User: Which sequence fits this backbone?
């Protein structure tokens, strides 16, 4: 009974998600067509370019000779049927290529997210509990460093030290060159390896994940540490925490049951937003660690003005981002009963 | 034999100018099944001296003195020994029921967690007990209330829930810090009647903190009147209400809204932390003050900290 408005909220948000996806296709379509460049020039070789017949054939094949609204309409109708168009660079369906690259990024990004939340929130709690101690000061410096160090620099430094100098972690790729990927189910090597019971592949995939995930998570760990500390301290000043203390509850119970939960509300907001910066960070990190994910795909598509590929990437990234923030909105309701029962 | 015996309690609070005395040598006792009223303006140290008993002062505060309770000195307790007193032997009801209950935990959880911790009750037994307590404080549909959250109750109901929570472990002493201040007048009377009933039915001793002497006069057996971190007058409630001896107490009583002749506020403002006048702290606001009042600090003699005793002279 009382949860019906909540259900409506969920449905409304899902509807908004669909509208937003359409909006994103329109914006990315307009933007990619505003770029002063010719896909034909970017994708055809020198000799082919000098032959007007070949250029015309290329333009016709990819529908570039039609008016823009027609091109957009064709794209949309195709999209509804699950067709992302054909890459102008590779001549393969963009949908197939996305299915190949997206899981790699999801594996990397979700590892980084889990790492950020666990480490960032954990360190933030520690700093808040030991306020003004040497540990708090140390964490302040570390988190500030995490937030302010450019990802590309951190990636290169980690690569140099952990791989080149000390050789404790592999330098790039998702698996050692000699190994075959596990049979694809989800596209996440770690999960697929577990599903297939290939323990050695699983271990190797995890081994390859560590360095890029750490580099990618550095910023969000720093951010979450600082926000968690501030949020915990704010909650600690509330009357209901004094009530909990006056009830004689042990410190651990107070922190985990009474302080953490209200503190999570602003942390959730930041975590959702941080996920966005994490997605954009993958473009760099994947390039440096030869991680065949959507970041690399986006980079190459942009270089080649591969319009359908760029739009596919934009759409996928935007939907992931919006979905994450939708999940965050749902979690507000889980954490705070006042959101759910209003 | 009193239940609680506090003597020479001093609390220094950290401020921008270093530690400043918020409570400056107070002593009081609470007997079995007694309701003791503590009156005084905001900032007079009445709340902080009660919180100090349970070690609930803000970080950086320094507390000295002694507080005998059940054969031990509360002020010497630390860690687990202190937590075992909190909520179990001595419980607190705070001023504002809108902020003192946890907004994201169910009433059931908040009423059972300390009971399970202190008494080791099973979840079901603790919930049964919680429902009984809610019934005791007259919350309709106690079973249903256990699954709900504070925002689904009115202010008066929330204060009743806070009282039920405080009673969870059958404490010997309840410290009620302005439990009716945040509530409507009509609700106030109900809460006071409830406290009085708990004293008779559950054998509870209560320290009732308030700035409203009118509230105290209806339930408290004895009164302590605070001014600027010290007790300026104490005695049986009826005596103080009918014949207040300290000029400050007289001022407090005149400041009550009355039908006959309206209210007369006390001129001036109470001193702030660290700026307490020398001698009798009240002398700058006192109509009877003499030159000696600014020099000699009056001690509490025969329940009164005022050597001039204007009532006797006039």
Assistant:
């Amino acid at each position: 009974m009382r949860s019906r408005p909540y259900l409506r909220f969920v449905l409304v948000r899902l509807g908004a998600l669909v509208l937003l996806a359409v909006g994103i296709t329109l914006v990315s379509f307009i933007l990619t067509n505003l770029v002063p460049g010719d896909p034909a020039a970017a994708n055809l070789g020198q000799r082919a370019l000098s032959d007007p017949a070949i250029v015309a054939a290329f333009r016709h094949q990819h529908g570039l000779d039609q008016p823009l609204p027609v091109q957009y309409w064709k794209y949309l109708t195709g999209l509804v049927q699950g067709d992302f168009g054909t890459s102008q660079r590779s001549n393969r369906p963009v949908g197939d290529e996305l299915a190949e690259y997206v899981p790699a990024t999801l594996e990397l990004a979700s590892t980084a997210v889990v790492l950020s939340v666990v480490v960032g929130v954990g360190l933030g709690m520690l700093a808040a509990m030991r306020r003004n101690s040497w540990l708090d000061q140390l964490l302040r410096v570390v988190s500030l460093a995490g937030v302010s160090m450019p990802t590309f620099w951190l990636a290169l430094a980690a690569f140099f030290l952990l791989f080149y100098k000390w050789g404790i972690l592999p330098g790039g790729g998702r698996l050692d060159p000699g190994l075959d990927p596990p049979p694809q189910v989800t596209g996440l090597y770690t999960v697929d390896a577990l599903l297939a019971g290939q323990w050695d592949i699983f271990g190797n995939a995890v081994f390859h994940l560590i360095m890029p995930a750490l580099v990618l998570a550095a910023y969000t760990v720093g951010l979450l540490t600082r926000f968690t500390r501030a949020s915990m301290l704010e909650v600690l000043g509330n009357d209901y925490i004094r009530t909990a203390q006056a009830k004689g509850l042990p410190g651990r119970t107070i922190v985990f049951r009474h302080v953490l939960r209200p503190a999570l509300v602003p942390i959730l907001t930041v975590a959702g937003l941080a996920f966005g910066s994490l997605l954009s960070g993958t473009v760099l990190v994947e390039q440096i660690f030869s991680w065949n994910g959507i970041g690399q795909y986006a980079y190459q598509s942009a270089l080649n003005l591969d319009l359908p590929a760029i739009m596919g990437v934009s759409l996928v990234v935007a939907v992931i981002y919006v979905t994450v923030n939708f999940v965050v909105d749902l979690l507000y309701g889980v954490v705070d009963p006042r959101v759910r029962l209003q | 034999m009193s239940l609680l015996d506090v003597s020479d309690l001093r609390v220094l609070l950290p401020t921008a100018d270093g530690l400043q005395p918020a409570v400056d040598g107070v002593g009081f006792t609470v007997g079995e099944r007694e309701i003791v009223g503590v009156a005084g303006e905001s900032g007079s140290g009445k709340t902080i001296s009660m919180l100090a008993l349970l070690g609930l002062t803000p970080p950086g505060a320094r507390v000295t003195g002694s507080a005998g309770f059940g054969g031990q000195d509360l002020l010497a307790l630390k860690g687990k020994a202190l937590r075992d007193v909190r909520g179990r032997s001595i419980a607190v009801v705070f001023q504002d029921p809108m902020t003192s209950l946890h907004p994201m935990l169910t009433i059931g959880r908040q009423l059972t967690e300390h009971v399970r911790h202190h008494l080791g009750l099973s979840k079901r037994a603790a919930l049964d007990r919680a429902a009984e307590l809610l019934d005791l404080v007259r919350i309709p549909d106690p079973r249903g209330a256990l699954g709900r959250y504070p925002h689904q109750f009115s202010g008066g109901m929330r204060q009743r829930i806070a009282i039920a929570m405080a009673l969870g472990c059958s404490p010997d002493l309840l410290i009620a810090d302005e439990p009716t201040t945040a509530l409507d007048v009509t609700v106030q009377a109900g809460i006071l009647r409830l406290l009085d009933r708990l004293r008779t039915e559950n054998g509870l001793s209560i320290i009732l903190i308030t700035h409203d002497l009118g509230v105290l006069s209806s339930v408290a057996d004895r009164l302590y009147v605070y001014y600027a971190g010290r007790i300026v007058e104490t005695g049986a409630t009826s005596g103080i209400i009918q014949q207040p001896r300290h000029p400050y107490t007289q001022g407090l009583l005149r400041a009550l809204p009355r039908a006959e002749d309206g209210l007369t506020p006390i001129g001036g403002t109470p001193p702030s932390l660290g700026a307490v006048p020398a001698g009798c702290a009240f002398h700058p606001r006192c109509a009877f003050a003499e030159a000696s009042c600014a020099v000699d600090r009056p001690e509490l003699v025969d329940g009164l900290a005022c050597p001039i005793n204007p009532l006797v002279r006039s």
